[in-house]
Structures are given as structure tokens and as C-alpha cells.
Amino acid sequence: MKALGPWRVELADANAFVETHHRHHDPVLNHRFSIGVGDDRLRGVAICGRPRAAAINQRGVLEVLRVATDGTRNACSWLYGAAARVAGTMGFYAGSRGRIETFTTRGGSRRWRHAWTRWRRQCDGRRPSRLRWL
Which CATH number fits domain 5-133: 1.10.1040.10, 3.40.50.720, 3.40.630.30, 3.20.20.70? Predict the structure, then answer.
């Protein structure tokens, strides 16, 4: 198997991949960007956009809306790391309120977090599955 590398992915293609490889999410209607990872074929996608919660700063925060892979080793970690690097390039860390975050389901696998150590679990009692980039 070749090393994983970046793939340019349009939203329609990313939604199709999520529909095929993810178990419980509807398609995303709009986004800021989508990225993919693969070797000789597409192995995973990440869709990043504006936060869904109205109380969150819509301009300074980027939310990773969907991540789906075919189970390839390290693909999730690669996607979250790439999303964070792209967000930094786009200026999401420039201000004091700039950040990138995502949400996970309670039953979902959290193995990817061990490989990408700059993501931190924050629990305030109300949102136990909230993750933020440090």
C-alpha cells in the first residue's frame, strides 16, 4: 500500500463517500471546504463548515462536520490533522476566538484522538463530546 496523501474532493463527492461509508448522517448542504485522503484510491473524506449551533461565533470557528473513512489505518487522524492545518492557513487561529472544533457521538470510536494529540476533549457537563483544537 502506498503512503496516504491529500485528495481534492468536491462537496457532492464527499457527501457520496459519507453516504457509502457512514452509518447515521444526512448529506451536508454547504461547507467551507472538503478534503480527502487516499493512496491509489480515495480512503476518507472530511467536510468542514460553519458551526451548526447559533450561539457559536460563525466567522471565527470552523466545525468539522463529517469525517468518514473506509477503515484505512490512520486515515481519520490524517484528515483531522489536515483540517486543522487548512483552518490555520485560512486564519481561524489568528484571533483570540478563532478555533476549530468537532463533535462525536457517545458510541463512536475515539481511537483517532490518540494519534492526533492536539485535539482535547472538553467536558462541561452539558456537552460531553465536544472536542477543540489547541
Answer: 3.40.630.30
